[in-house]
Design brief:
The structure holds 2 protein chains of 2 kinds. By secondary structure, chain A is an alpha+beta fold. Chain A is built from 8 helices and 20 strands. Helix content of chain A is 23%, strand content 37%. In chain A, the strands form 4 sheets. A 6-stranded mixed β-sheet of chain A has the order 6-7-8-3-9-10, sandwiched between helices. In chain A, strands 13-12-11-14-20 form a 5-stranded antiparallel β-sheet. Chain B has 2 domains: 42 residues; 212 residues, MetI-like (MetI-like fold, Orthogonal Bundle). Chain B is globular and about 75 Å long. The model of chain B has no long low-confidence stretch (mean pLDDT 88). Classes of the chains: A alpha+beta, B mainly alpha. Chains A and B meet through strand 6 and helix 2 of A and helix 7 and helix 8 of B.
Protein backbone atom coordinates (compact mmCIF):
# COMPACT_ATOMS: atom_id res chain seq x y z
CA UNK A 1 0.00 0.00 0.00
CA UNK A 2 1.18 3.49 -0.79
CA UNK A 3 0.01 6.57 1.05
CA UNK A 4 -1.20 9.76 -0.55
CA UNK A 5 -0.29 13.28 0.29
CA UNK A 6 -3.28 15.31 1.39
CA UNK A 7 -3.47 19.04 0.86
CA UNK A 8 -6.22 21.08 2.47
CA UNK A 9 -6.57 24.47 0.81
CA UNK A 10 -8.51 27.37 2.35
CA UNK A 11 -11.35 25.15 3.59
CA UNK A 12 -14.27 26.97 5.23
CA UNK A 13 -17.44 25.49 6.73
CA UNK A 14 -20.30 26.93 8.79
CA UNK A 15 -23.21 25.30 10.57
CA UNK A 16 -25.78 28.08 10.70
CA UNK A 17 -24.13 30.96 12.51
CA UNK A 18 -21.36 28.71 13.89
CA UNK A 19 -18.06 28.95 11.98
CA UNK A 20 -16.70 25.39 12.26
CA UNK A 21 -13.71 25.87 9.95
CA UNK A 22 -12.25 29.24 9.05
CA UNK A 23 -9.92 29.21 6.03
CA UNK A 24 -7.98 26.10 7.06
CA UNK A 25 -4.90 25.09 5.04
CA UNK A 26 -2.71 22.11 5.92
CA UNK A 27 -0.27 19.98 3.91
CA UNK A 28 0.13 16.35 4.95
CA UNK A 29 2.93 14.22 3.48
CA UNK A 30 2.77 10.67 2.05
CA UNK A 31 2.80 8.06 4.81
CA UNK A 32 2.74 10.60 7.60
CA UNK A 33 1.09 9.96 10.97
CA UNK A 34 -0.62 13.34 11.26
CA UNK A 35 -2.77 14.41 14.20
CA UNK A 36 -5.48 17.06 14.39
CA UNK A 37 -5.47 18.09 18.04
CA UNK A 38 -7.80 20.48 19.80
CA UNK A 39 -10.63 20.82 22.32
CA UNK A 40 -14.14 19.69 21.38
CA UNK A 41 -15.80 22.08 18.95
CA UNK A 42 -12.48 23.21 17.47
CA UNK A 43 -13.39 21.88 14.01
CA UNK A 44 -11.07 18.86 13.88
CA UNK A 45 -13.86 16.32 13.40
CA UNK A 46 -15.56 18.52 10.80
CA UNK A 47 -12.30 18.66 8.84
CA UNK A 48 -11.98 14.87 9.03
CA UNK A 49 -15.58 14.44 7.84
CA UNK A 50 -14.87 16.76 4.91
CA UNK A 51 -11.86 14.64 3.90
CA UNK A 52 -14.01 11.48 4.21
CA UNK A 53 -16.82 13.04 2.16
CA UNK A 54 -19.57 13.19 4.80
CA UNK A 55 -19.61 16.99 4.78
CA UNK A 56 -19.15 19.51 1.99
CA UNK A 57 -17.24 22.72 2.76
CA UNK A 58 -18.52 26.07 1.46
CA UNK A 59 -15.11 27.02 0.15
CA UNK A 60 -11.68 25.55 -0.51
CA UNK A 61 -10.41 22.24 -1.82
CA UNK A 62 -9.14 18.89 -0.55
CA UNK A 63 -6.43 17.46 -2.80
CA UNK A 64 -5.37 13.80 -2.72
CA UNK A 65 -2.13 13.46 -4.67
CA UNK A 66 -2.96 16.74 -6.34
CA UNK A 67 -6.53 15.86 -7.36
CA UNK A 68 -9.49 17.66 -5.76
CA UNK A 69 -11.74 14.95 -4.24
CA UNK A 70 -14.57 17.20 -3.07
CA UNK A 71 -16.84 16.34 -6.03
CA UNK A 72 -16.54 12.60 -5.24
CA UNK A 73 -19.04 10.84 -2.92
CA UNK A 74 -17.56 9.01 0.11
CA UNK A 75 -17.94 5.56 -1.46
CA UNK A 76 -15.49 6.26 -4.29
CA UNK A 77 -12.76 8.09 -2.34
CA UNK A 78 -9.56 6.16 -1.62
CA UNK A 79 -10.01 7.13 2.01
CA UNK A 80 -11.44 5.03 4.83
CA UNK A 81 -12.53 5.95 8.33
CA UNK A 82 -12.27 4.37 11.77
CA UNK A 83 -15.25 5.79 13.66
CA UNK A 84 -15.24 6.98 17.23
CA UNK A 85 -17.91 4.51 18.36
CA UNK A 86 -16.62 1.76 16.00
CA UNK A 87 -19.84 1.75 13.88
CA UNK A 88 -19.58 -2.02 13.33
CA UNK A 89 -22.50 -3.72 11.59
CA UNK A 90 -24.19 -5.51 14.49
CA UNK A 91 -25.95 -8.08 12.28
CA UNK A 92 -22.71 -9.30 10.66
CA UNK A 93 -19.92 -11.47 12.11
CA UNK A 94 -16.42 -10.09 12.60
CA UNK A 95 -15.38 -11.82 9.36
CA UNK A 96 -18.28 -10.33 7.36
CA UNK A 97 -17.73 -6.88 8.88
CA UNK A 98 -14.16 -6.90 7.62
CA UNK A 99 -15.24 -8.47 4.30
CA UNK A 100 -17.97 -5.85 3.73
CA UNK A 101 -16.27 -3.79 1.06
CA UNK A 102 -14.94 -6.91 -0.73
CA UNK A 103 -18.46 -8.35 -0.83
CA UNK A 104 -19.71 -5.10 -2.36
CA UNK A 105 -17.03 -5.39 -5.02
CA UNK A 106 -18.18 -9.01 -5.62
CA UNK A 107 -14.70 -10.38 -4.96
CA UNK A 108 -14.34 -14.20 -5.38
CA UNK A 109 -14.65 -16.23 -2.15
CA UNK A 110 -11.01 -17.33 -2.17
CA UNK A 111 -9.81 -13.70 -2.40
CA UNK A 112 -12.17 -12.68 0.40
CA UNK A 113 -10.87 -15.48 2.65
CA UNK A 114 -7.22 -14.56 1.95
CA UNK A 115 -7.56 -10.82 2.40
CA UNK A 116 -9.85 -10.95 5.45
CA UNK A 117 -7.54 -13.56 6.99
CA UNK A 118 -4.56 -11.31 6.37
CA UNK A 119 -6.11 -8.26 8.03
CA UNK A 120 -7.58 -10.24 10.93
CA UNK A 121 -4.05 -11.52 11.58
CA UNK A 122 -2.73 -7.96 11.39
CA UNK A 123 -5.06 -6.92 14.23
CA UNK A 124 -4.71 -10.32 15.98
CA UNK A 125 -8.37 -11.30 15.79
CA UNK A 126 -8.24 -14.52 13.68
CA UNK A 127 -9.66 -16.47 16.64
CA UNK A 128 -12.75 -14.24 16.80
CA UNK A 129 -13.76 -14.30 13.11
CA UNK A 130 -17.17 -15.91 13.73
CA UNK A 131 -18.22 -13.78 16.67
CA UNK A 132 -20.77 -10.98 16.53
CA UNK A 133 -19.63 -7.44 17.46
CA UNK A 134 -21.78 -7.62 20.62
CA UNK A 135 -19.58 -10.47 21.90
CA UNK A 136 -16.35 -8.47 21.64
CA UNK A 137 -14.62 -6.20 24.14
CA UNK A 138 -14.10 -2.51 23.37
CA UNK A 139 -10.50 -3.01 22.28
CA UNK A 140 -11.45 -5.91 20.01
CA UNK A 141 -14.25 -3.89 18.39
CA UNK A 142 -11.76 -1.13 17.73
CA UNK A 143 -9.42 -3.57 16.02
CA UNK A 144 -12.27 -4.92 13.85
CA UNK A 145 -13.03 -1.34 12.82
CA UNK A 146 -9.38 -0.82 11.88
CA UNK A 147 -9.18 -4.06 9.86
CA UNK A 148 -12.46 -3.20 8.11
CA UNK A 149 -11.17 0.25 7.18
CA UNK A 150 -7.83 -1.10 5.93
CA UNK A 151 -9.05 -4.00 3.80
CA UNK A 152 -9.86 -1.79 0.84
CA UNK A 153 -6.22 -0.66 0.88
CA UNK A 154 -7.01 3.05 1.16
CA UNK A 155 -4.24 5.55 0.63
CA UNK A 156 -5.37 7.56 3.65
CA UNK A 157 -6.81 6.21 6.90
CA UNK A 158 -8.89 8.66 8.96
CA UNK A 159 -9.19 7.94 12.67
CA UNK A 160 -11.87 9.88 14.57
CA UNK A 161 -10.97 9.76 18.29
CA UNK A 162 -10.65 5.99 17.93
CA UNK A 163 -9.49 5.37 21.50
CA UNK A 164 -11.82 7.67 23.42
CA UNK A 165 -14.22 4.86 24.38
CA UNK A 166 -11.46 2.69 25.88
CA UNK A 167 -10.10 2.77 29.43
CA UNK A 168 -6.71 4.36 30.12
CA UNK A 169 -4.60 1.15 30.18
CA UNK A 170 -6.12 -0.23 26.99
CA UNK A 171 -5.72 3.16 25.33
CA UNK A 172 -1.96 3.03 25.88
CA UNK A 173 -1.82 -0.48 24.47
CA UNK A 174 -3.94 0.36 21.40
CA UNK A 175 -1.85 3.45 20.76
CA UNK A 176 1.29 1.33 20.49
CA UNK A 177 -0.58 -1.11 18.22
CA UNK A 178 -1.80 1.72 15.99
CA UNK A 179 1.73 2.98 15.67
CA UNK A 180 2.96 -0.52 14.80
CA UNK A 181 0.21 -0.92 12.15
CA UNK A 182 1.15 2.45 10.68
CA UNK A 183 4.80 1.40 10.48
CA UNK A 184 3.83 -1.92 8.85
CA UNK A 185 1.53 -0.63 6.09
CA UNK A 186 2.97 2.84 5.58
CA UNK A 187 -0.16 4.68 4.41
CA UNK A 188 -1.08 8.19 5.55
CA UNK A 189 -2.87 8.31 8.92
CA UNK A 190 -4.91 11.36 9.90
CA UNK A 191 -5.73 11.06 13.56
CA UNK A 192 -8.26 13.27 15.35
CA UNK A 193 -7.96 13.59 19.11
CA UNK A 194 -8.47 15.97 21.99
CA UNK A 195 -5.89 14.12 24.09
CA UNK A 196 -2.50 15.82 23.80
CA UNK A 197 -0.68 12.79 25.29
CA UNK A 198 -2.00 10.55 22.50
CA UNK A 199 -1.06 13.08 19.85
CA UNK A 200 2.43 13.71 21.22
CA UNK A 201 3.29 10.03 21.57
CA UNK A 202 2.37 8.73 18.09
CA UNK A 203 2.35 11.61 15.62
CA UNK A 204 4.98 12.60 13.11
CA UNK A 205 3.40 16.03 13.04
CA UNK A 206 0.50 17.69 14.82
CA UNK A 207 -1.86 20.50 13.86
CA UNK A 208 -3.22 22.23 16.94
CA UNK A 209 -6.69 23.68 16.27
CA UNK A 210 -9.01 25.98 18.14
CA UNK A 211 -12.12 27.91 17.13
CA UNK A 212 -12.04 26.56 13.57
CA UNK A 213 -8.47 27.70 12.94
CA UNK A 214 -5.10 25.98 12.79
CA UNK A 215 -2.85 27.62 15.39
CA UNK A 216 0.35 25.67 14.83
CA UNK A 217 1.61 22.76 12.74
CA UNK A 218 4.78 21.02 13.81
CA UNK A 219 6.49 17.95 15.23
CA UNK A 220 5.54 16.96 18.78
CA UNK A 221 8.83 18.46 20.01
CA UNK A 222 8.21 21.77 18.26
CA UNK A 223 4.65 21.97 19.55
CA UNK A 224 5.70 21.17 23.10
CA UNK A 225 8.97 23.07 23.33
CA UNK A 226 8.13 26.08 21.18
CA UNK A 227 4.39 26.74 21.31
CA UNK A 228 3.35 29.42 18.81
CA UNK A 229 0.49 30.88 20.85
CA UNK A 230 -0.69 31.09 24.45
CA UNK A 231 -3.47 28.62 23.64
CA UNK A 232 -1.02 26.00 22.33
CA UNK A 233 1.25 26.47 25.35
CA UNK A 234 -1.65 25.95 27.76
CA UNK A 235 -3.33 23.16 25.80
CA UNK A 236 -0.23 20.98 25.38
CA UNK A 237 1.07 19.71 28.66
CA UNK A 238 1.31 21.76 31.82
CA UNK A 239 3.04 25.05 31.83
CA UNK A 240 3.68 28.34 33.56
CA UNK A 241 2.50 31.17 31.31
CA UNK A 242 3.03 34.82 32.22
CA UNK A 243 3.41 38.22 30.57
CA UNK A 244 6.19 40.73 30.64
CA UNK A 245 7.84 43.63 28.80
CA UNK A 246 11.19 43.30 27.04
CA UNK A 247 13.83 45.49 28.67
CA UNK A 248 16.87 44.56 26.60
CA UNK A 249 17.93 42.03 23.96
CA UNK A 250 21.33 40.46 23.39
CA UNK A 251 21.47 37.91 20.59
CA UNK A 252 18.80 35.26 21.26
CA UNK A 253 18.44 36.16 24.91
CA UNK A 254 16.00 38.75 26.18
CA UNK A 255 15.65 40.34 29.58
CA UNK A 256 12.02 40.83 30.67
CA UNK A 257 10.43 43.01 33.31
CA UNK A 258 7.59 41.05 34.90
CA UNK A 259 5.12 42.04 37.59
CA UNK A 260 5.27 38.59 39.20
CA UNK A 261 8.98 37.67 39.22
CA UNK A 262 10.96 40.85 38.61
CA UNK A 263 13.66 40.29 35.97
CA UNK A 264 13.34 37.12 33.87
CA UNK A 265 15.78 35.83 31.22
CA UNK A 266 14.22 34.06 28.24
CA UNK A 267 15.31 32.95 24.75
CA UNK A 268 13.76 33.36 21.32
CA UNK A 269 15.03 32.78 17.77
CA UNK A 270 14.45 36.43 16.96
CA UNK A 271 13.39 38.48 19.98
CA UNK A 272 11.27 41.59 19.33
CA UNK A 273 12.78 44.97 20.27
CA UNK A 274 12.84 46.41 23.77
CA UNK A 275 9.51 47.76 25.02
CA UNK A 276 7.43 44.99 23.38
CA UNK A 277 4.76 43.38 25.55
CA UNK A 278 5.04 39.56 25.32
CA UNK A 279 3.89 36.33 26.93
CA UNK A 280 6.53 33.83 28.03
CA UNK A 281 6.50 30.28 29.32
CA UNK A 282 8.63 27.80 31.22
CA UNK A 283 7.65 24.10 31.53
CA UNK A 284 7.34 22.85 35.13
CA UNK A 285 9.87 20.02 34.61
CA UNK A 286 12.53 22.52 33.46
CA UNK A 287 12.56 24.23 36.84
CA UNK A 288 14.99 22.92 39.48
CA UNK A 289 13.74 22.85 43.05
CA UNK A 290 16.24 22.76 45.97
CA UNK A 291 16.15 23.17 49.71
CA UNK A 292 19.55 24.92 49.66
CA UNK A 293 20.52 27.91 47.54
CA UNK A 294 22.36 26.58 44.43
CA UNK A 295 26.10 27.33 44.92
CA UNK A 296 27.01 28.33 41.37
CA UNK A 297 24.85 30.93 39.65
CA UNK A 298 25.75 31.35 35.99
CA UNK A 299 24.70 34.35 33.92
CA UNK A 300 21.21 34.00 32.43
CA UNK A 301 20.01 31.72 35.22
CA UNK A 302 16.68 32.66 36.73
CA UNK A 303 16.79 32.21 40.49
CA UNK A 304 13.82 32.59 42.83
CA UNK A 305 12.93 31.64 46.37
CA UNK A 306 9.52 30.70 47.68
CA UNK A 307 7.33 28.53 49.88
CA UNK A 308 5.84 25.13 48.92
CA UNK A 309 2.08 25.66 48.80
CA UNK A 310 0.99 22.21 47.74
CA UNK A 311 3.10 19.13 46.94
CA UNK A 312 1.29 16.48 44.83
CA UNK A 313 3.12 13.17 45.08
CA UNK A 314 2.45 10.60 42.33
CA UNK A 315 5.17 8.00 42.77
CA UNK A 316 7.51 8.68 39.88
CA UNK A 317 7.32 12.44 40.32
CA UNK A 318 6.09 15.18 42.60
CA UNK A 319 4.35 18.33 41.40
CA UNK A 320 4.84 21.39 43.57
CA UNK A 321 2.86 24.61 43.57
CA UNK A 322 5.42 27.10 44.84
CA UNK A 323 4.43 30.57 46.01
CA UNK A 324 7.38 32.82 45.22
CA UNK A 325 8.44 35.69 47.50
CA UNK A 326 6.85 38.11 45.02
CA UNK A 327 3.48 36.38 45.54
CA UNK A 328 3.02 34.53 42.23
CA UNK A 329 2.66 30.74 41.86
CA UNK A 330 4.93 28.54 39.73
CA UNK A 331 4.27 24.90 38.91
CA UNK A 332 7.36 22.73 39.31
CA UNK A 333 7.66 19.03 38.50
CA UNK A 334 10.43 17.01 40.11
CA UNK A 335 11.20 13.56 38.67
CA UNK A 336 12.32 11.02 41.26
CA UNK A 337 15.33 9.73 39.41
CA UNK A 338 17.01 7.75 42.21
CA UNK A 339 17.11 7.23 45.95
CA UNK A 340 19.41 10.14 46.65
CA UNK A 341 16.88 12.49 45.06
CA UNK A 342 15.59 14.96 47.63
CA UNK A 343 12.30 15.57 45.74
CA UNK A 344 10.22 13.32 48.00
CA UNK A 345 11.73 15.00 51.09
CA UNK A 346 10.50 18.49 50.21
CA UNK A 347 7.32 19.06 52.20
CA UNK A 348 4.42 21.44 52.52
CA UNK A 349 5.50 24.91 53.82
CA UNK A 350 9.22 24.23 53.18
CA UNK A 351 11.07 27.25 51.86
CA UNK A 352 12.76 26.33 48.59
CA UNK A 353 14.95 27.72 45.80
CA UNK A 354 13.76 27.56 42.20
CA UNK A 355 16.13 27.93 39.26
CA UNK A 356 15.80 27.58 35.50
CA UNK A 357 18.04 28.46 32.61
CA UNK A 358 17.15 31.16 30.10
CA UNK A 359 17.38 28.47 27.37
CA UNK A 360 14.37 26.69 28.91
CA UNK A 361 12.11 29.76 29.03
CA UNK A 362 10.55 30.95 25.77
CA UNK A 363 8.75 33.91 24.34
CA UNK A 364 5.32 32.84 23.04
CA UNK A 365 3.20 35.70 21.74
CA UNK A 366 3.61 39.39 21.11
CA UNK A 367 0.84 41.32 22.88
CA UNK A 368 -0.46 44.73 21.91
CA UNK B 1 -37.39 -13.87 50.04
CA UNK B 2 -40.82 -14.99 51.22
CA UNK B 3 -43.73 -13.35 49.46
CA UNK B 4 -46.48 -11.95 51.60
CA UNK B 5 -49.99 -13.38 51.65
CA UNK B 6 -51.22 -10.13 50.10
CA UNK B 7 -49.02 -10.36 47.02
CA UNK B 8 -49.94 -14.03 46.56
CA UNK B 9 -53.62 -13.14 46.79
CA UNK B 10 -53.31 -10.32 44.23
CA UNK B 11 -51.44 -12.65 41.93
CA UNK B 12 -54.05 -15.40 42.21
CA UNK B 13 -56.89 -12.88 41.80
CA UNK B 14 -55.35 -11.46 38.64
CA UNK B 15 -54.84 -14.89 37.12
CA UNK B 16 -58.44 -15.88 37.89
CA UNK B 17 -59.77 -12.60 36.49
CA UNK B 18 -57.76 -13.00 33.28
CA UNK B 19 -58.27 -16.66 32.57
CA UNK B 20 -61.54 -17.77 34.21
CA UNK B 21 -63.70 -16.49 31.31
CA UNK B 22 -61.50 -18.41 28.87
CA UNK B 23 -61.76 -21.53 31.03
CA UNK B 24 -65.59 -21.27 31.04
CA UNK B 25 -65.53 -20.95 27.27
CA UNK B 26 -63.30 -23.99 26.84
CA UNK B 27 -65.48 -25.93 29.28
CA UNK B 28 -68.74 -25.20 27.40
CA UNK B 29 -67.18 -25.97 24.03
CA UNK B 30 -67.09 -29.61 25.14
CA UNK B 31 -70.70 -29.54 26.42
CA UNK B 32 -73.13 -31.98 24.78
CA UNK B 33 -76.13 -29.76 25.59
CA UNK B 34 -76.88 -26.56 23.72
CA UNK B 35 -78.09 -24.72 26.84
CA UNK B 36 -76.11 -23.48 29.85
CA UNK B 37 -76.49 -26.76 31.77
CA UNK B 38 -73.89 -29.53 31.51
CA UNK B 39 -75.08 -32.37 29.28
CA UNK B 40 -71.95 -34.51 29.24
CA UNK B 41 -68.64 -34.42 27.32
CA UNK B 42 -68.90 -34.22 23.55
CA UNK B 43 -67.00 -33.09 20.48
CA UNK B 44 -70.17 -32.48 18.44
CA UNK B 45 -69.66 -28.68 18.22
CA UNK B 46 -66.13 -29.18 16.92
CA UNK B 47 -67.54 -31.61 14.36
CA UNK B 48 -70.17 -29.05 13.35
CA UNK B 49 -67.51 -26.32 13.22
CA UNK B 50 -65.27 -28.24 10.85
CA UNK B 51 -67.88 -30.00 8.69
CA UNK B 52 -71.10 -28.03 8.70
CA UNK B 53 -70.40 -24.26 8.93
CA UNK B 54 -69.81 -22.97 5.37
CA UNK B 55 -70.69 -19.33 6.20
CA UNK B 56 -68.26 -19.30 9.12
CA UNK B 57 -65.40 -20.59 6.97
CA UNK B 58 -66.20 -18.11 4.20
CA UNK B 59 -65.97 -15.32 6.80
CA UNK B 60 -62.74 -16.85 8.12
CA UNK B 61 -61.33 -16.92 4.57
CA UNK B 62 -62.22 -13.25 4.08
CA UNK B 63 -60.57 -12.38 7.38
CA UNK B 64 -57.41 -14.28 6.49
CA UNK B 65 -57.12 -12.66 3.08
CA UNK B 66 -57.77 -9.17 4.47
CA UNK B 67 -55.41 -9.67 7.42
CA UNK B 68 -52.44 -11.07 5.48
CA UNK B 69 -52.95 -8.79 2.47
CA UNK B 70 -53.47 -5.56 4.38
CA UNK B 71 -50.62 -6.37 6.78
CA UNK B 72 -48.25 -7.02 3.87
CA UNK B 73 -49.17 -3.76 2.11
CA UNK B 74 -49.11 -1.77 5.37
CA UNK B 75 -45.69 -3.25 6.22
CA UNK B 76 -44.23 -2.32 2.84
CA UNK B 77 -45.56 1.25 2.89
CA UNK B 78 -44.93 1.76 6.62
CA UNK B 79 -41.32 0.53 6.42
CA UNK B 80 -40.45 2.69 3.42
CA UNK B 81 -42.22 5.64 5.07
CA UNK B 82 -40.28 5.21 8.31
CA UNK B 83 -36.97 4.94 6.45
CA UNK B 84 -37.80 8.02 4.38
CA UNK B 85 -38.84 10.11 7.36
CA UNK B 86 -35.79 8.98 9.32
CA UNK B 87 -33.25 9.32 6.55
CA UNK B 88 -34.16 12.40 4.55
CA UNK B 89 -34.61 15.95 5.72
CA UNK B 90 -37.53 17.72 4.05
CA UNK B 91 -40.23 20.28 4.78
CA UNK B 92 -43.20 19.17 6.89
CA UNK B 93 -41.15 16.18 8.10
CA UNK B 94 -42.09 16.43 11.77
CA UNK B 95 -45.66 17.32 10.83
CA UNK B 96 -45.85 14.13 8.77
CA UNK B 97 -44.60 12.06 11.70
CA UNK B 98 -47.24 13.42 14.05
CA UNK B 99 -50.07 13.04 11.56
CA UNK B 100 -49.11 9.42 10.91
CA UNK B 101 -49.77 8.56 14.55
CA UNK B 102 -53.26 10.11 14.53
CA UNK B 103 -55.20 6.98 13.49
CA UNK B 104 -53.74 5.19 16.54
CA UNK B 105 -55.21 7.75 18.91
CA UNK B 106 -58.52 8.51 17.23
CA UNK B 107 -61.49 6.41 18.40
CA UNK B 108 -62.17 3.59 15.93
CA UNK B 109 -65.75 4.68 15.45
CA UNK B 110 -64.58 8.04 14.07
CA UNK B 111 -62.24 6.34 11.63
CA UNK B 112 -65.05 3.96 10.64
CA UNK B 113 -67.54 6.77 10.00
CA UNK B 114 -65.02 8.94 8.15
CA UNK B 115 -63.94 6.04 5.91
CA UNK B 116 -67.62 5.29 5.17
CA UNK B 117 -68.26 8.93 4.24
CA UNK B 118 -65.07 8.94 2.16
CA UNK B 119 -65.92 5.78 0.20
CA UNK B 120 -69.53 6.77 -0.43
CA UNK B 121 -68.44 10.26 -1.38
CA UNK B 122 -66.16 8.78 -4.03
CA UNK B 123 -68.90 6.37 -5.09
CA UNK B 124 -66.84 3.27 -4.34
CA UNK B 125 -69.01 0.16 -3.80
CA UNK B 126 -68.57 -1.26 -0.29
CA UNK B 127 -67.10 -4.76 -0.27
CA UNK B 128 -63.86 -6.68 0.26
CA UNK B 129 -61.85 -3.90 -1.44
CA UNK B 130 -63.04 -1.15 0.91
CA UNK B 131 -62.42 -3.38 3.94
CA UNK B 132 -58.92 -4.05 2.62
CA UNK B 133 -58.16 -0.34 2.13
CA UNK B 134 -59.53 0.51 5.58
CA UNK B 135 -57.38 -2.16 7.21
CA UNK B 136 -54.24 -0.97 5.41
CA UNK B 137 -54.90 2.57 6.62
CA UNK B 138 -55.34 1.69 10.29
CA UNK B 139 -52.44 -0.81 10.27
CA UNK B 140 -50.00 1.63 8.74
CA UNK B 141 -49.21 3.74 11.85
CA UNK B 142 -48.37 0.65 13.90
CA UNK B 143 -45.83 -0.62 11.38
CA UNK B 144 -44.50 2.91 10.91
CA UNK B 145 -44.05 3.37 14.66
CA UNK B 146 -42.37 -0.01 15.26
CA UNK B 147 -39.95 0.37 12.35
CA UNK B 148 -39.21 4.01 13.22
CA UNK B 149 -38.39 3.05 16.82
CA UNK B 150 -35.93 0.49 15.52
CA UNK B 151 -34.39 3.02 13.12
CA UNK B 152 -34.04 5.68 15.77
CA UNK B 153 -32.07 3.46 18.13
CA UNK B 154 -29.39 2.80 15.58
CA UNK B 155 -26.37 4.88 15.19
CA UNK B 156 -26.22 7.00 12.03
CA UNK B 157 -22.45 6.48 11.77
CA UNK B 158 -23.19 2.86 10.77
CA UNK B 159 -24.75 4.22 7.58
CA UNK B 160 -21.73 6.48 7.08
CA UNK B 161 -19.45 3.48 7.64
CA UNK B 162 -21.26 1.56 4.89
CA UNK B 163 -20.93 4.52 2.52
CA UNK B 164 -17.30 4.95 3.52
CA UNK B 165 -16.61 1.30 2.70
CA UNK B 166 -17.92 1.73 -0.82
CA UNK B 167 -21.68 1.04 -0.61
CA UNK B 168 -24.08 3.07 -2.72
CA UNK B 169 -27.30 4.32 -1.13
CA UNK B 170 -29.24 1.31 -2.46
CA UNK B 171 -26.59 -1.15 -1.26
CA UNK B 172 -26.61 0.50 2.17
CA UNK B 173 -30.38 0.02 2.33
CA UNK B 174 -30.28 -3.64 1.27
CA UNK B 175 -27.21 -4.80 3.16
CA UNK B 176 -27.21 -2.75 6.32
CA UNK B 177 -30.47 -0.96 7.07
CA UNK B 178 -33.02 -3.64 6.15
CA UNK B 179 -31.24 -6.49 8.00
CA UNK B 180 -30.85 -4.30 11.07
CA UNK B 181 -34.50 -3.22 11.23
CA UNK B 182 -35.87 -6.67 10.29
CA UNK B 183 -37.09 -7.43 13.84
CA UNK B 184 -39.09 -4.18 13.72
CA UNK B 185 -40.53 -5.06 10.32
CA UNK B 186 -41.52 -8.57 11.45
CA UNK B 187 -43.18 -7.41 14.65
CA UNK B 188 -44.91 -4.65 12.68
CA UNK B 189 -46.30 -7.23 10.25
CA UNK B 190 -47.48 -9.57 13.03
CA UNK B 191 -49.09 -6.70 14.94
CA UNK B 192 -50.87 -5.65 11.76
CA UNK B 193 -52.15 -9.21 11.16
CA UNK B 194 -53.49 -9.41 14.72
CA UNK B 195 -55.13 -5.98 14.63
CA UNK B 196 -56.73 -6.73 11.29
CA UNK B 197 -58.05 -10.15 12.38
CA UNK B 198 -59.78 -8.78 15.47
CA UNK B 199 -61.09 -5.51 14.07
CA UNK B 200 -64.83 -5.13 14.34
CA UNK B 201 -65.84 -1.46 14.54
CA UNK B 202 -64.12 -0.07 11.44
CA UNK B 203 -64.92 -3.17 9.39
CA UNK B 204 -68.56 -2.93 10.41
CA UNK B 205 -68.83 0.51 8.75
CA UNK B 206 -67.05 -0.17 5.48
CA UNK B 207 -68.11 -3.75 4.74
CA UNK B 208 -70.56 -4.66 2.01
CA UNK B 209 -72.36 -7.71 0.70
CA UNK B 210 -70.16 -10.79 0.51
CA UNK B 211 -67.41 -9.19 2.62
CA UNK B 212 -68.28 -10.55 6.07
CA UNK B 213 -65.20 -11.05 8.22
CA UNK B 214 -65.00 -13.46 11.12
CA UNK B 215 -65.68 -10.91 13.90
CA UNK B 216 -68.74 -9.65 11.98
CA UNK B 217 -69.96 -13.22 11.48
CA UNK B 218 -69.54 -14.07 15.17
CA UNK B 219 -71.38 -10.90 16.16
CA UNK B 220 -74.32 -11.63 13.90
CA UNK B 221 -74.43 -15.27 15.01
CA UNK B 222 -74.46 -14.31 18.68
CA UNK B 223 -77.46 -12.01 18.24
CA UNK B 224 -79.56 -15.14 17.90
CA UNK B 225 -78.17 -16.71 21.10
CA UNK B 226 -74.70 -18.03 21.79
CA UNK B 227 -74.07 -21.03 19.62
CA UNK B 228 -71.68 -23.62 21.09
CA UNK B 229 -70.04 -23.68 17.64
CA UNK B 230 -68.70 -20.21 18.47
CA UNK B 231 -67.26 -21.64 21.70
CA UNK B 232 -65.48 -24.32 19.73
CA UNK B 233 -64.24 -21.74 17.24
CA UNK B 234 -62.91 -19.62 20.11
CA UNK B 235 -60.93 -22.55 21.51
CA UNK B 236 -59.42 -23.21 18.07
CA UNK B 237 -58.51 -19.53 17.76
CA UNK B 238 -56.95 -19.44 21.24
CA UNK B 239 -54.74 -22.39 20.28
CA UNK B 240 -53.87 -20.74 16.98
CA UNK B 241 -52.91 -17.49 18.70
CA UNK B 242 -50.77 -19.29 21.27
CA UNK B 243 -48.96 -21.12 18.46
CA UNK B 244 -48.45 -17.85 16.56
CA UNK B 245 -47.13 -16.00 19.62
CA UNK B 246 -44.79 -18.83 20.45
CA UNK B 247 -43.34 -19.01 16.96
CA UNK B 248 -43.03 -15.21 16.75
CA UNK B 249 -41.10 -15.16 20.01
CA UNK B 250 -38.74 -17.84 18.79
CA UNK B 251 -38.33 -16.10 15.45
CA UNK B 252 -37.38 -12.82 17.13
CA UNK B 253 -34.96 -14.67 19.38
CA UNK B 254 -33.47 -16.35 16.31
CA UNK B 255 -33.06 -12.98 14.57
CA UNK B 256 -31.51 -11.42 17.66
CA UNK B 257 -29.04 -14.31 18.02
CA UNK B 258 -28.10 -14.34 14.33
Amino acid sequence: MIGSDVVIEHVGKSFGAFRALDDVSIGIGKGEFFSLLGPSGCGKTTLLRIIAGFEQPESGAVLLDGVNVLPEPPNTRRVNTVFQNYALFPHLSVFENVAFSLRLAKAPDATVRDRVGHYLRLVELEAHADKKPAQLSGGQKQRVAIARALINEPSVLLLDEPLSALDAKLRQHMLIELDAIHDKIGITFIYVTHDQQEALSVSDRIAVMNGGQVLQVGTPQEIYEAPATDFVAKFIGETNLYEGTIRSVSGQMAELDTAEFGTVYVTDDDPPPAGTRVSWTVRPEKIRIDLERPSSVRGGLNLLSGLVDEPIYSGFQTKFYVRTDQGATLKVIKQHADWSDEGPRIRWKDSVWLSYSAEDAFLVEVKR
Amino acid sequence: MKRSIFSKAVFAGTIVFLFLPLAVLVFYSFNESKSGSWGGFSLRWYLKLFTDSPDLWRAFGNSAIIALGSAAVATAIGTLGAIGVNWYRFRLRSYLRTVTFLPMILPEIIIGVSLLVFFSGLGIRLGLFTVFVAHVSFNLPFVFLLVLARLEEFDFSIIEAARDLGATEAQTLARVILPMIMPGIVSGFLTAVTLSLEDFVITFFVTGPGATTLPLYVYSAIRFGISPVINALSVVMILGTVALTWSMRNFLKYIAAK
